[in-house]
Amino acid sequence: MQIPKGLAPMVPSTEDALAAERSKAAFKVSDMHQFIVDSDMRTKVAKVEALMGEEPETFSLRKVYFMSRQEKMEHALAIGKRLIELLKEGKLSGDDISIADMVLDINGPFGLHRTMFIPTLQNQATVEQQELFLRPALNYEILGCYAQTEIGHGSNVQGLETTCTYVPETDEFEVHSPSVRACKWWIGSLGVTATHAMVMAQLIVGGKRHGPCPVVVPIRSTVDHQPLEGVTVGDLGPKFGFNTMDNGFLLLNRVRVPRINLLQRYITVSPGGKVSRPANVDPKVAYGTMVYVRTQIVRNMSQVLAKATTVAVRYAAVRRQFKSESSALESPVLDYSMVQYRLIPLVAQNYAMFATSQAFLAHYQRSMVEMDKGNFAPLKELHATACGLKRWTSDVGVAGIDTCRHVCGGHGFSQFSGLNEFYGNAYPNIIWEGDNYVLSQQTVRYLISQVRALRAGKPVAENQTTRYLQRHMPQGQLHAAAFDVSQLLVQKEAQLDLLAFRSASMASALVDALDAGRSWNHSLVDVQRLCDAHSDFIVASYFRQHLDTLDAQSPLVPHLEKLATLLFLYTLEQHSADLFRLPRPFTPEMVAQVERALARAIEEVREQAVPLVDAFGISDFRLNSALGRSDGKVYDSYLEWAMEDPLNNDEGLRREWFEKYYKPVLHGKSRL
Amino acid sequence: MQIPKGLAPMVPSTEDALAAERSKAAFKVSDMHQFIVDSDMRTKVAKVEALMGEEPETFSLRKVYFMSRQEKMEHALAIGKRLIELLKEGKLSGDDISIADMVLDINGPFGLHRTMFIPTLQNQATVEQQELFLRPALNYEILGCYAQTEIGHGSNVQGLETTCTYVPETDEFEVHSPSVRACKWWIGSLGVTATHAMVMAQLIVGGKRHGPCPVVVPIRSTVDHQPLEGVTVGDLGPKFGFNTMDNGFLLLNRVRVPRINLLQRYITVSPGGKVSRPANVDPKVAYGTMVYVRTQIVRNMSQVLAKATTVAVRYAAVRRQFKSESSALESPVLDYSMVQYRLIPLVAQNYAMFATSQAFLAHYQRSMVEMDKGNFAPLKELHATACGLKRWTSDVGVAGIDTCRHVCGGHGFSQFSGLNEFYGNAYPNIIWEGDNYVLSQQTVRYLISQVRALRAGKPVAENQTTRYLQRHMPQGQLHAAAFDVSQLLVQKEAQLDLLAFRSASMASALVDALDAGRSWNHSLVDVQRLCDAHSDFIVASYFRQHLDTLDAQSPLVPHLEKLATLLFLYTLEQHSADLFRLPRPFTPEMVAQVERALARAIEEVREQAVPLVDAFGISDFRLNSALGRSDGKVYDSYLEWAMEDPLNNDEGLRREWFEKYYKPVLHGKSRL
């Protein structure tokens, strides 16, 4: 099916509209790209996109919107197999492959083998076990997954019900799922792929429980892929997104494995059943891995939100609706203040996320260096910050993609917008690695402990969090400009000070409430809010830190400063209720000033909106969106993609449907 | 695939947990159901569910989660065909069919024929045209759709580019799509089904434009369903939801139709090209239809949100996570305050939506009676209210389903939760029939006009809106209790008064800003907020009105009162920033009192949460959710559904994948 010939061109064209936006650019887009996206990401994305460009058949994304679940899985398998070949050929590194997954937005069935099975072996297997399991895993002679979550147990690892019982008679472990509630669930790469599962199970030796430990359980034959004796395993069905991944379930019916299959670096069971703990778990390993995973989530959320804001800003710049008072043409919807209000702060948040991602990773790396030296002082704050940022970036990212979709109007609802695919695949980030509501408690427990220590005059580790708590407790020591809105607009220190004061005040009030006897469970609503207030400060602070790495004379500075101030004002405006409740409260007139300043900032930044999203540097290949095309040729492309729908091209199917459904209706018994 | 035998039962069981919740019911669920769901809905749902129960093969929903787009379409076609047969046999009425669509949550390809094509003919065709088009349409001898939206034109009907030009030489119209931007788009039932399109096109006679008018254009043969000459038509591809509907595109290349195909009740073109307007469009028709459609959206949003809250509340009652301080068992997540805070106010909003749906429909019907008598005074307020309620209920409904999904944790992400299907199908309600952001302007324009009239001392029609504006302007005449939180909790009048005062104050401030020269475009953020404040009042007011229809002695009253007060407190808490900015502002201590009262109310209502959602009366068939089952047998059912996944049962496919993808990886070239 093709667009008929002879149609008149659209006047004004969408291409011209986008070109006009770009002609307004007041900074060099490539310079901005270099500053806001870290060099590692830039290099690797360029490398994998080039490689994929050489094999367009395998790495095509064009047909993905028409695929059924099964076709998506098969597409991901073909890609996954090819990536492993490229890895074996030395053309791609393991890191490159994770970038490839991100570029394609396809998380395929070999993913958890790399991201969970292998790292667990690296961290928790003895040398002997590494030879036995890690070596074949690295060679892809076995395919693994990490089976922790159970159908009835998500966040509560201690509550897992799967057991791993030592059998002294045969020197084996018996791994068992006692009830349906112990069924392993959500396990990525388990559904159709894995030959081996790293099962987290309650270790029982001589009747005594030792808590959850990882044990390697072979589940499918490496010869013919058939499930082994006692293993009930399968794919857990279609999901809201992530349908290229075979999340699976696993029930084990008294499956025996040799004693050596229990990873023994941190706990050892000797022949006969003596349990010892040869090494304490290195806190760097336990927390470091968690924090590292969260640095990756922050990075990924920046990237996926960038795809969404790129689509929405570009499309809003070329989509026209209703005539303005001043023009005979319909106005681009990006000129409407309500569209700007929804989209422009999101672009600022996206910039903040990119900057935060870099500053946070740097913080993580510095902390790891300290820990290598045996200094574990940075650990708690690092972990608290990581939890807060994982929550902040995934909340903003997932809600932001939804905002972008709605801004695109009806067309956002089409799969060809790309936004629904982004949304579905990004969505789990608010749940996994600690549900965002659970995670906020981690951050806030740390804040509370520091507030209590400060109140009691105890020493606290010095870091970005304790510094601001110290400054504002027991009472606010505010920068003079923090309560003068006109000053706030120009004084960066005062901006951070106000955000810190907000968070510190809320932390202080929460401690008061707890001290007065309110239970933790009754405090959870306040806990969420405090976590967000803290993260608002951290994000603003990291954003500033990253800006400070730029030469003060750089022509990028004024544009980035505008974004930082815009984000600050938006944060205040979104949480104006907090401002009214500060120990030194804002007045209604001050809040109105904030709103007016925000409206002006939004209008200013709108002028650079298209260059600002161009600077994210997302290729058309990655966007895979008819609406977000970099050349602005939106409607032709959208129509062409629709015409490719198999429903429009399968004559046989259409004849069959006509005979079966339409003809009996049209030519059937009369009603009247 | 089957669950292996010999597993131990889960202790405590999820069934027992749900039964325990039900045993706490302090009211009769069937009485509550009768009160909160209108009798028309109850009767029709029962009727269609009974009928569907007789033909489980056709009306099955069980496999829907595994279906590809094409399979979904075919499933909907089979259902649609059967419903038409039942209609022709007199077993179902047209109304019943719309209920059937709602019950199944399947909007099939025959839908727009009934909901748009036929009504347009009924309203705008002459008697002669009714014989020509309406009669065969009612007989399903032709299948229609309503082709208004274009790829480049959504809300702006005046901007449509498709033309309908009179050709005096042949006494025909030439219907034409000049450019791709004029391509008809999103048209339901057009993609593969319709034989006729009601095309909205710019009428041009003798070179003069007369605005958009409806013209009937045959597009596919009724004999073999092939597209007719000059017609490019097809399905516009997969969407975020609504994939049982064939939304389509249509390009017309100078297609000629006889003069009689232009619907001529409100505009007539005579042979030779004289244009006259025989009858003014009856405002009852123009606005009445729009308002009626919005009463249906309010009703549908109540129903779909009820499905989601039923799933989430039941599942939260049986899902356990972490041990509480007081028990050896893990706690049901519904006992966590953060889960309650997200879920219980939503249940209250859901009750308010059901009540509002009934009260609003009654208001609509009273207004129609007035208009039949020639009194058009209620029209403007009715329209403003309808716009506000469409926005309020669809915003709350769609966001609410998302909240329910997130509350279910990871399992909400599975299609078997049902929630994703509800979400995708409900989502378009925030966009169609006026995008919610555009729609708020309609409501607020009315509010502004009434504020201006009142300020100028001009007479205004008396209605619920003008009454509250009058009461609070020029200054607030507040109920004495409105600023005493403890009094507010018990005095219903004061609650409504405070909500009215908030809305009136915001309306007044907006008029001041506009009068001071701020442009409409710069006021849109305030416009949204005012629209919501107004709707908060209207919803609370309708909720009260519906409660007042109940015998004061009814044992249901205290439970409903609690819900109404909870919703009121939640509205205040969510908008506490507004309270601080009232002409007579709340203090931080008052807001804290509101928060404490809300927390108590939530805890109280939580005790009745399961009976309260049971009272929505949604059958397991409709829920189609493994998590929301009324018997609480969640995990077995969830696992059984997963086991039915074709991926788990297609041995041939699995062997093929093993040979093609896994074997080459497992047994391929070594890496190390």
From TrEMBL, chains A, B:
<comment type="similarity">
    <text>Belongs to the acyl-CoA oxidase family.</text>
</comment>
<dbReference type="Pfam" id="PF02770">
    <property type="entry name" value="Acyl-CoA_dh_M"/>
</dbReference>
<feature type="binding site">
    <location>
        <position position="188"/>
    </location>
    <ligand>
        <name>FAD</name>
    </ligand>
</feature>
<keyword id="KW-0276">Fatty acid metabolism</keyword>
<keyword id="KW-0285">Flavoprotein</keyword>
<dbReference type="InterPro" id="IPR002655">
    <property type="entry name" value="Acyl-CoA_oxidase_C"/>
</dbReference>
<dbReference type="GO" id="GO:0055088">
    <property type="term" value="P:lipid homeostasis"/>
</dbReference>
<feature type="domain" description="Acyl-CoA oxidase C-alpha1">
    <location>
        <begin position="287"/>
        <end position="448"/>
    </location>
</feature>
<dbReference type="GO" id="GO:0003997">
    <property type="term" value="F:acyl-CoA oxidase activity"/>
</dbReference>
<keyword id="KW-0443">Lipid metabolism</keyword>
<feature type="domain" description="Acyl-CoA oxidase/dehydrogenase middle">
    <location>
        <begin position="145"/>
        <end position="253"/>
    </location>
</feature>
<dbReference type="GO" id="GO:0005777">
    <property type="term" value="C:peroxisome"/>
</dbReference>
<comment type="pathway">
    <text>Lipid metabolism; peroxisomal fatty acid beta-oxidation.</text>
</comment>
<dbReference type="GO" id="GO:0033540">
    <property type="term" value="P:fatty acid beta-oxidation using acyl-CoA oxidase"/>
</dbReference>
<dbReference type="Pfam" id="PF22924">
    <property type="entry name" value="ACOX_C_alpha1"/>
</dbReference>
<dbReference type="Pfam" id="PF14749">
    <property type="entry name" value="Acyl-CoA_ox_N"/>
</dbReference>
<dbReference type="InterPro" id="IPR029320">
    <property type="entry name" value="Acyl-CoA_ox_N"/>
</dbReference>
<feature type="active site" description="Proton acceptor">
    <location>
        <position position="433"/>
    </location>
</feature>
<dbReference type="InterPro" id="IPR012258">
    <property type="entry name" value="Acyl-CoA_oxidase"/>
</dbReference>
<keyword id="KW-0560">Oxidoreductase</keyword>
<protein>
    <recommendedName>
        <fullName>Acyl-coenzyme A oxidase</fullName>
    </recommendedName>
</protein>
<dbReference type="InterPro" id="IPR036250">
    <property type="entry name" value="AcylCo_DH-like_C"/>
</dbReference>
<dbReference type="InterPro" id="IPR055060">
    <property type="entry name" value="ACOX_C_alpha1"/>
</dbReference>
<dbReference type="InterPro" id="IPR046373">
    <property type="entry name" value="Acyl-CoA_Oxase/DH_mid-dom_sf"/>
</dbReference>
<dbReference type="GO" id="GO:0005504">
    <property type="term" value="F:fatty acid binding"/>
</dbReference>
<dbReference type="InterPro" id="IPR037069">
    <property type="entry name" value="AcylCoA_DH/ox_N_sf"/>
</dbReference>
<feature type="binding site">
    <location>
        <position position="149"/>
    </location>
    <ligand>
        <name>FAD</name>
    </ligand>
</feature>
<feature type="domain" description="Acyl-coenzyme A oxidase N-terminal">
    <location>
        <begin position="29"/>
        <end position="143"/>
    </location>
</feature>
<keyword id="KW-0274">FAD</keyword>
<dbReference type="GO" id="GO:0071949">
    <property type="term" value="F:FAD binding"/>
</dbReference>
<dbReference type="InterPro" id="IPR009100">
    <property type="entry name" value="AcylCoA_DH/oxidase_NM_dom_sf"/>
</dbReference>
<feature type="domain" description="Acyl-CoA oxidase C-terminal">
    <location>
        <begin position="496"/>
        <end position="666"/>
    </location>
</feature>
<dbReference type="InterPro" id="IPR006091">
    <property type="entry name" value="Acyl-CoA_Oxase/DH_mid-dom"/>
</dbReference>
<dbReference type="Pfam" id="PF01756">
    <property type="entry name" value="ACOX"/>
</dbReference>
<keyword id="KW-0576">Peroxisome</keyword>
